[in-house]
Amino acid sequence: MHRLKLFHRVILRPMLAQPSRGLLTFVAVALGVAVVIAIDLAGFAAAGSFRSSMESLAGKASLELAGSTGIPEDTLGKLATLPIPVRFEPRVEEYITDEASGVVTSLIGIDLVAHAQRNLVLGDASGLEVLDHPRAAWVGAGLGRQPGDELRITIQDRSETLRVSGVFQEEGDQPGTNRVVVVDLPVAQALTGREGLLDRVEVEFPEDVDEAAVRAAVSAVLPAGVELRSFGARTDANRRMLGAFRWNLRILSGIALVVGAFLIYNTISVSVVRRRGEIGVLRALGVTRTGAQALFLAEAAAFGIAGGLAGAALGTLMARAAVDLLAATVNALYVTSTPGAVSLSAGHLAASLLLGLGVSLAAAFAPAREAGSIAPVEAMARGRRDYDVRVNAGRNALWGALLLATGAAFCWMPPVDGRPLFGYLATLLLILGTAMLLPLLITLLNAAAQRQVTRLFGVEGLLAARSLTGSLRRSAVLVGALSTAVAMMASVALMVGSFRQTVMVWMDNQIQADIYLRAAAPSSPDNYPPIHPDVAAALEALPEVAAVDRFRAVSLMLNGKPATLGFGDSQLMRTQGRTSFLPGQDRQAILTRLPTGPYVVVSEPFSQKHDARVGGTLQLPLPSGPMEVTILGIFNDYSNERGTVFGDAAVFAPRFPRQEITSLSVYLRDGVSLDAGRLAVEQATANRRVLVFTNRSLRAEAIRIFDQTFAITWALEAVAIFVAVMGMAGALVALVMDRRRELSLLRFLGASKPQIQRLIYFEAGLLGMLSNVVGLLLGFALALILIYVINRQSFGWTFQFHWPGALLLGALTLIYAATLASAWFPARVATRLNPIEVIHEE
Amino acid sequence: MLAVSKHYRSNGVDVPALRDFSHRFRAGEFVALVGRSGCGKTTLLNLAGAMDFPSQGEVWIGDACTSRLDDAGLTRLRRTRIGFIFQFFQLLPTLSVVENVELPLLLAAAPDPRAQALRSLEWVEMADFAQRMPHQLSGGQMQRVAIARALVHRPQLLLADEPIGNLDTTTGNLVLELLRRAASEQGATVLMATHSPESTSITDTIIRLRDGAVEDITQPACTV
Q: Is residue B223 part of a domain?
C-alpha cells in the first residue's frame, strides 16, 4: 500500500502532469505490439491456419494415397480385397471459382452414397434421390446458396453449371468460412476430365490395427507413381514452407517493437534523470535501492500493460486489413488457400500483454537499475550522469565493435533447420552494436562538424550541436531509435529494389514468346489447371502463329518437400528463350543435351532446398514408376520458391498417362502485329475459359503480384518509422522541459523567441541528419545480410545488388521532413516558457 | 523608474509585488536592494531588466520605455544595454568558459565575439580558464565567469540577483569587488539584490524595500 502511494506520488503524478509525454510512449508501445500481433493474426488466418480447403469432409484417416497425376480407379478394387479392416475413401479434387462471387474454392468429389450411409456431414440417405441430377452439388454455407440454386463455376478452362442440392456446415467451422463444393465422385471425374482416376484415397483403420501392417499390405498392391503417406503430409509440408514466410514477416514486424523499446528506454531514462534529486531525497529518507528501482520498473510496467492491451485491440483491426494482402501473397508464391477469419484469441491477448510488459521491462531495466544506484549525495550533482556517459563512450564503442564483429561472423553460419537464425541474430547484433557505437560517433561527428555547423547556422547551430553531446545518452537513444527504423526501411528498400530489378531482368530473359495462355481456373505454384489439348492444336493451325510451346507442370513431393516438375520444348527454349543459368554453366550445351536422355535442370530455390548440385541425381516419382534423372544445370527462377525441376517433353510426356497442358507459349510469325496475333488467339479460344496475356501484360501482371507481395513489408516499415518520429516528438518535448532553465537563461542573455525556436528545429534537424546517415549505413549492412544471408537461406534466391536511388532519396527526405515537423510542438512549448518563473524556481 | 507598481494574481487575488517605486539610477552607480524575501527585490530587477512589464508606471532604460516595446524590441534592449548575474551562476554546462562568455555577443550577431569574450575574461582574471568546462570550476570562478558574460557587451545596466548568496565570504568579497569595478571602471549602473548587510558597505546607494514599497534610501559615506 505504501509502495503504491509512493508510486502514485513519485511516478504517476508527474506523468499525469505531462500527459503528452506519457501518451506518446504508450502509443509507441501499443503500435509496436499491435504490429506484431496483427502480423501474427493475419499470417495465421492467411497461411498459418493453413488447412487446405481440400481437407474438408476428411474422415479420421491416418494414411492417404496420392500420385502426382492421379491414382487409377481400379486400384480401389485391389485395395478392397485386402484382408485387413481398412476403409478407403476415394476423392477427386480441383480448385474452382464461383463465377457469381469470384470466390476461389474447392470442388471435392466423394462417394456420396457411402458418405450418406455413414450419416456424415451432408445428411442422411433420404436426400440421395437428388443424385439422379447429373450436376447435383452440396455447398458449404459460406457460399450463401440455397437448395435449388444454380451454381456457375469456372473449372480448368471451362464454365460449368451445377445445381445446389443441399447446404452444409462442418463441425468446428467458423460461420461463413466453409465454401467447399461437394459432388458425387463420377460427377467430379467428368468435370475434371479425370475419368478412371482418383486424386487421393484416404485410408482409415481402427486404432487397434497395426499401422505398419496396413502400410505393408497397401503398398504391395499400389501401382507405380502412387505413394502411401501419412495423412496431411502435403499440408504439413506446405505449412513448413509457409513457416519461413511467416517467420520473416514476424521478424520484420518486430522492428516497430524494437523501436518502441528504444523509446521506453528513453522515457524511463528521462524519468530517472529528471528525478535524480527526488530519488536522492527518497533514498536519504529510507527508500531502499530495490525500492527505487522497483518504482521505475513499475512505471515501465504500466506502459507495458496499457500498451499491450491497446496493442491487442489495434492489432486485431490491423490484421483484418492485412489478411487479404497476405493471402494473395500465399496464393501467388506458395499454395492455393483462402484466408480464415481473424479473431483475437485468449492466447494472442496474453501474448500482447507479455510482449508489451516484456519489452517495456527489458528496456527499462538499465535506467531503473541506475535509479537504484543513486546515492543521496550524488543526486545533487547535475549533469553528472551525462558526463559519465560521455566518459564511457569509448568503452561502449568497444563493446559495440565486438557486437558488430560477432554479427559479421554469424553471417557465415549455416541455416538451422532451414531457418537463417544466425542471419537474424546478425541483424540484431548489428543494430545493438551500432547503438553502442553511437555515443562515440555523435561525439566525434559533432567535434568534426561543429565549426561548420556554427558557421552555417550561427549560435543556434552551436547550441544545438552542444546539446547533442551534452545530453549524450538521450541523443544516442533517439538516434538509435530513428536510425534503426531508417536502417530497416533502407535495407528493405535495397532488398526489394534489388529483388525487383533482378526479377525484371529475369522476366526480360524468360518471357520471350509473344502470347501466353493458361486456364482461367485458380492456379498457384501447387495447382496447375489444365488446358484442353485441342486449344494448342487450334492455335497451331492459325496462319498468324509460327510455333506453340506446350508446357506442363505437375506438383509432386520430393524428399517430403513440395516441388514442381515442368516439361516443355527445350529446343524452343534454347533457340527462342534466354533462360539464364548460374555463372559458369553453359546454357547452349545444357539445353542441347536436355532432350537426349534422363536429364533435368533445376531452379535455384530447388537446388537450395534439396541440396541439389550439377551432376547429382534425383529420384522422380512418376506415374510410370520412379525415374532417376541427372541434373545438368541450375537456372535462375523467381516464379515460385518451392522449386522447379524442368525437363524436355520428349523425355517426360510419355511417362504420363494423359497428355495435359498447363500453359501455352505462342510465337507469332514475323510481320504479324501483337494486336492481330492476340485477336486471332482470342477468337480461336473463345469457347474456352482461358486467360490470354501478351508478353507485356504478363510482365505487368508479374510486377503487380511482386509489388502486392511486398506491400505489407512497406506497411510495417511505415509503422516503425511513424513510431520513431512520434518518439522523436515526445523526446523533444521532454528535452525542452528538461532544458527549460537553459532556454530561459538564453532569453535573459538576449535570445529572441525565433532564435529559441530555431534552436529546437536545429536540434531536431541534427538528430534527423545523424539518424539518416547512421540509418543509411546500417541499412546498407543489413541489406547485405538480408540479400546474401537471410534470403539465400530462407528462399534460395540470388539477387543482383541494386540501389533504388530515387526511392531511398524520397523516403529519407520524407523522414527528415517528418523529423523536422516533429519539432514544431516542442519549439512552441519552448517559446512559451516564462523565463522569470523558470530561473527563479531555483 | 517612474511610479512603477507590479501586481501578480494568485488564486484570484491581486498580490502587490512592488508599489509606486520611483528612482533615477545614475551611470556608474552601484545600488544595493535589500530587504526580506518577497519584499520586491527580484521583481524590481526583472522590471529593470526588461524581462517583465510594470502593472503601472514606466521603466526607462536610457531613451527606451520598456512598456512601449514589443518582444523583439525588449530582446534588442537586453542584448545591448543589460547584463544579468544570478545566484546560481547559470552557466551553460555544455559550453566552455569562453563560449559561455561570448554567448550574448553570438545571440546579438556582434562582430569578433571571441576577442571580446577573452578580454572580458581577462578583466575578471579568468582568461587562463577559457577552455575549461563549467563543471571544472569552483563556485567563485563560475560567478566570475558569469560576471564576464554579463559585461561582455558593455551593458549600461548590470543586474545581479543575490550574486554572493551561494559563495563563502572571501569569494563573495572578490565578486563584490568586481561589481564595484564594473560600476566605477566601465560606468555601468549596477543593481544588486542582496540579503547580506555586509555586501552593502561598498555600494553607493542602499534601497531598503518592505512589502513592495521603499522603506528608505541611504548612501553610505565611504566605499572600499
A: no
Per-residue pLDDT reduced to its tens digit, A169-202: 766 666 666 788 999 999 999 999 888 889 889 8
As given in the structure block, the three cell numbers for residue B94 are: 555544455
Query: Is A111 in a helix, a strand, or coil?
Result: coil
Rounded to whole angstroms, the Cα distance separating A69 from A225 reads 8
Distance CA A17, CA A28 (A): 19
Chain B residue numbers touching A842 (CB-CB < 8 A) = 87-88
Rounded Cα distance, A566 and A364, in Å: 55
The separation between CA A64 and the C-alpha centre of its own chain, rounded to angstroms, equals: 31
Q: Do A746 and B51 touch (CB under 8 A)?
A: no
Q: Average model confidence (pLDDT) for chain A?
A: 83
Cβ contact, residue pair B84, A749, below 8 Å:
yes
Mean pLDDT, residues A345-357 taken together = 89
Phi, psi at residue A415, to the nearest 5°?
-70, 155
Tens of pLDDT, residue by residue over A78-115, are 888 888 888 888 999 888 889 998 887 889 898 887 77
Sign, CA dihedral A209-A210-A212-A216, equals negative
What local confidence, expressed as pLDDT, does residue A496 receive? 85
Distance CA A170, CA A177 (A): 10
The pTM score is 0.76
- A124 falls in which pLDDT band (50, 70, 90)? very low
Q: The domain spanning residue B212 has which CATH number?
A: 3.40.50.300
All three cell numbers of A217: 499390405
Q: Is B49 in Cβ contact with A749 (below 8 Å)? A: no
Whether residue B174 lies within 8 A of chain A, CB to CB, comes out as: no
Question: What pLDDT is attached to residue A619?
Answer: 92
Suggest the residue from A748, A749, A763 to mutate for an interface test with chain B (most B CBs closer than 10 A): A749
- Encode pLDDT of A608-620 as tens digits: 888 899 999 999 9
DSSP secondary structure letters along B123-158: HTT-GGGTTS-GGGS-HHHHHHHHHHHHHTT--SEE
Give the count of beta carbons closer than 10 Å to the beta carbon of residue A308.
28
Confidence of residue A21 (pLDDT cuts 50, 70, 90): low
Q: Report yes or no: B46 at the A interface, CB cutoff 8 Å.
A: yes
C-alpha cell at B153: 557587451
Residue A713 makes CB contacts below 8 A (sequence gap 6+) with A249, A252, A492, A496
Q: How many helices (H) and strands (E) does chain A have?
A: 27, 18
- What is the residue type of A179? R
Residue B27 belongs to a domain: yes
| Cβ-contact A803, A705 below 8 angstroms | no
State the DSSP H helix or E strand holding residue B4, giving kind and residue range, or none if neither.
Answer: strand B2-10
From the list A155, A196, A183, the residue with the least C-alpha distance to A69 is: A196
Q: Tell me if A52 sits within 8 A of A335, measured CB to CB.
A: yes
3-state secondary structure of A515: strand
Asked if B93 lies within 8 A of A755 by C-beta distance, the reply is: no
Q: What H or E segment, with its residue span, contains residue A737? A: helix A695-738
- H-helix or E-strand spanning residue A467: helix A421-470
- Dig out the grid coordinates for A588 from the structure: 547452349
Q: Which domain holds residue B18?
A: 2-218
Residues in chain A within 8 Å Cβ distance of B89: none
Cα–Cα distance for residue pair A708/B114, rounded to 1 Å: 60
Q: Point out the residue among A466, A467, A751 whose CB comes nearest to the CB of B107.
A: A751
Q: Cell numbers at residue A476, please?
A: 544516442
How many distinct structural domains can be found in chain B? Answer: 1
C-alpha span between A502 and A508 (Å, rounded): 10
The DSSP element (H or E) to which A371 belongs, if any, is: helix A346-373
